[in-house]
Every structure is written in C-alpha cells, then in structure tokens.
Specification:
Helix content of chain A: over 70%
CATH superfamily of chain B: MetI-like
Distance between the termini of chain B: 42 Å
CATH class of chain B: Mainly Alpha
CATH architecture of chain B: Orthogonal Bundle
CATH architecture of chain A: Orthogonal Bundle
Number of helices of chain A: 9
Oligomer: heterodimer
Structural class of chain A: mainly alpha
Strand content of chain A: under 5%
Structural class of chain B: mainly alpha
Helix content of chain B: over 70%
Order of helices and strands of chain B: HHHHHHHHHH
Radius of gyration of chain A: 21 Å
Chain lengths: ~220, ~240
C-alpha cells in the first residue's frame, strides 16, 4: 500500500504554530543550558577539590546525572514529585530543570578539562604578582578556561535542544508536541514528522555552525 | 518531608522484580544489537568519507551530518508513525528502535573511526607497503587492529549512551525497563518508587558497563603505543560530539 498523495501544504498552514513551538523549544533549552552552565562550575570545582567531603558528593552527582536517562528525570520531576505531594512543577519548569540538572554533569566535565588545560605557569604567575588564590582564579585562570570551554558547550546546547523534544511527552507546547498534535488532528504523521525532523536537523546544524565560528573567533591570537 | 519518606513503599517494586528484570533483558538486547550495527554503519560511512571520489565523499558527509543532527525521539516517531502513514512500511517497535539507534549512532561512530584511522601514523601504512603487503592485508592486519584499539574508549561512551537511549523506546511501546516501570507505576499508583528504581538500575548498569569497558580497553590496548582516542561522551540524547 503506497499512499502517493502527500499534503505538504499542511505544514505551511500550521507554520505559525510550529514556529511558536520552536520558540518554546529554544526557550526551554536556553533556560536549561543556563542552569547547567551555572551548576557545572561549582560541581567541577568540588570534583577537583582536595577534600573527599567535596569530591565524593561531586562524583556521586556526576554518576547520577550521567547515568539516569533524561526521560526518567522528566517523569520523576513532573509526575512523581507531584504524586508524592512534594512540589508540582509546570511542564516548562520540569523541562528546564531536567535539562539543566542532567546537563550540569556534562558542563562540569567541560569546565574541569578547560581548567586543566590552562598552563600551570599561569596560576604561578598570578601568585608571583601577589594575587590571592581566589583572585588568581577569577582574573587569570577562569577567563582563559572559559575561552576553551565555549566550543564544547555549544555541543551541550545542541544536545539539550535534541533532548528538549522529549518534553513533548509531558505536553509542553514545544515544536515537536505541536507536530504531534497537528498530525493527530489532521492524520498527516508523515508530513508533520518529516517537517519536525527537518527543523531539528536544521536548527542543530545552524547551532553547530555558529559554534565553530565562535570557536575560530575565540582562538584568534591564541595558540 | 518525613511524611514523604514514611509513605514510600518499595514492596511493589520488589514484587515486580521479574518484569523489571525482563525489561533489563530487552534493554540490553536492543542496546547490544544497535551497537554492533552502528559499528558496521560507522565503518561504512567512514569509508565513504575517506573515498577519493567526490560524490561518494559528499554523500558520506551529508549522511553523517543528518545522522548526528536528528533527535532520537523525532526519528523514532517518524519511522514508527510517519513512515507507516506515508508509505505503508510498517515496522514493529523493536526493529524501529534498533534501526533508529543504529542510524543515529552510525554517524557518531563514523566520526570516531575517521579520527581513529587518522591517528595511525603514516609510517605504519608505508611500512606495510614496504613489506610487500597488499592494501587488503595492510588494512586487515596493520591498520584495522590499531584503529580498533585507538577507538575503543570512545566506542564505550557510545555504548553507554545507547543503553540510556533505549529508554526512549518505551514511548513506542517496547517493554524495556522504563516501559515496565511505567506500567507498574500506574498499576500501583507508585510512580516515585518505580521511577527511582528504574533510575537506580540504569545508573548501576551504566557503571558496570563503564568499568567492564575499562578492562576491555586495557586488555585490547596492551600493545598499543599511540594515545587512545578518548573523545568525549556523546552528550545526552543523540547529540553532537566534540
């Protein structure tokens, strides 16, 4: 059985909804990425600390955040916490928290390797000119590490963007949820899922391209 | 908060242990097959990328970008519902999942293999030629064994991510671990317990596989003199690798 008649105009008819959905997808991704980037640095510092009081919780957090599939995090935050009467999150809140918490482990690893990539002499030079440890970290180490951390962070952003398609299961009005709803209403799954796939591939490729441009900019004048 | 802890009851989870175990079985079965197929797909795509013929090279590039750019959930629903409605090709949930996981991860594996072959010093190939080995023997006996050792750590990361990604198949009704947990969570109205249990099992499996893989790396790389390609974890759900 081959259904030869495709109705591609259906995508055009619903382009406004899909566009608004894509905006929500981007918003939740940006919020989740912001949370991941904010949590990642303290986790990375705890991980590299000298006392097990800090490293042990950090290692446990990394194992949990990297071992639990995103979908289970979403279910736990959205359904289970509400069911237990702990806290009831909206779909957007549950979405950005699950993206941010899961992403924090990956961001921590990026910060960690970026900090390690700064030559030893830099922090020595910092203390030689009389900076305290914290000053040296804030003014010498961190600015250089952040520069190294930008390109891989773009990959995290792209990954979270793809992960955000999973938020359609808790009925957040993101792009993929819109595609599913319209496809069910009009019974046009082929057209709408194809459109969703093309949109996601396009957005991720654009984000990756922006990332490599930024990478080239940042490495200008540096080796 | 104490009320919350007191109200938790993991009894139902223990009662359904056999169902959860069978869910783990399905998860591993899907993950292992997808991993093996992704290695084949990755080698194929990497070979295309190394081809000197422009069209084949360009096609390989496009395929790799598309594989890496798509989100797994979108791909699965496209295959499962979209393709069925559009062309009448109807796939069962498990083959759909294996196909989607393979497609996505072939793209990542291709990039890993490409970097792996590039990491072999040029002298190795030249030495093979100098010894009178043909291109096939050179590939099979000199280049491939080294490439496998170099790429093993990065491949392990992919395997771990495939295991985690099988959870998405629950959404099209494959009765793997998450689907079983979901079913029984609804049956007992105990979603917290079942999802926490599922999360713990995932973490356990991921840690076990990571440690096992580390041994495999050490064993396979015992003659290796090149720094293996650690790569980075393939971030989350069907993501881009650095």
């Amino acid at each position: 059985m081959f259904v030869a008649e495709f109705a591609w105009e259906i995508i055009w008819d619903h382009s406004g909804e899909l566009g608004r959905g894509l905006l929500i997808t981007l918003e939740v991704t940006a919020a989740g990425f912001g949370l991941a980037a904010a949590l990642g640095l303290p986790i990375a510092l705890m991980r590299t600390a000298r006392t097990p009081l800090l490293t042990v919780p950090a290692v446990m957090w990394l194992a949990l955040a990297r071992g639990i599939p995103l979908l289970i995090v979403i279910f736990l935050l959205y359904y289970s916490l509400a069911e237990q009467g702990v806290v009831t999150f909206s779909a957007f809140q549950a979405g950005f928290l699950s993206l941010g918490l899961t992403g924090s482990a990956y961001m921590a690893e990026i910060y960690r390797s970026a900090l390690q990539a700064v030559p030893q002499g830099q922090s020595e030079a910092g203390s030689a000119i009389g900076l305290t440890g914290a000053q040296g970290f804030a003014h010498v180490l961190l600015p250089q590490a952040l520069r190294t951390a930008v390109p891989p962070s773009v990959n995290i952003f792209v990954a979270l963007l793809k992960g955000a398609t999973l938020l359609s299961v808790i009925a957040m009005a993101d792009m993929f949820h819109v595609a599913q709803v319209v496809s069910a209403e009009q019974y046009r799954p082929f057209e709408l899922y194809t459109a969703a796939a093309v949109i996601i591939i396009a957005v991720t490729l654009v984000a990756s391209a922006v990332g490599s441009i930024v990478e080239r900019r940042l490495s200008r004048g540096y080796r | 908060m104490s009320g919350l802890l007191a109200s938790l009851d993991f009894g139902p989870v223990w009662d359904q242990r056999e169902r959860l175990l069978s869910g783990i079985g399905t998860m591993l079965y899907v993950a292992v097959i997808s991993m093996l197929l992704s290695v084949v797909g990755g080698l194929l795509l990497a070979t295309m990328r190394r081809s000197r013929l422009r069209p084949i090279n360009a096609l390989g590039f496009l395929l790799i970008q598309a594989c890496r750019g798509i989100a797994l959930y979108v791909l699965i629903l496209w295959l499962f519902y979209g393709l069925a409605a559009g062309t009448g090709i109807r796939l069962d949930p498990i083959p759909t999942g294996i196909f989607a996981l393979t497609l996505l991860n072939s793209g990542y594996m291709a990039e890993i293999f490409r970097a792996g072959f590039d990491a072999i010093p040029e002298g190795q190939r030249e030495a093979a030629t100098a010894l009178g080995l043909g291109p096939v023997t050179s590939m099979a006996r000199i280049q491939a064994p080294q490439a496998i050792q170099i790429t093993l750590p990065a491949t392990g990361n992919i395997f771990v991510d495939i295991i985690k990604d099988t959870s998405i198949l629950a959404l099209v009704g494959v009765s793997e671990l998450l689907r079983e947990s979901q079913t029984w969570a609804q049956y007992y109205s105990r979603s917290f317990e079942f999802y926490v249990a599922a999360a713990a099992i995932y973490v356990g499996v991921v840690l076990l596989v990571s440690f096992g893989w580390r041994y495999l790396e050490r064993y396979a790389g015992r003659h290796l003199h090149i720094e293996p390609l650690r790569g980075q974890r393939r971030w989350l759900f069907g993501m881009v690798r650095t």
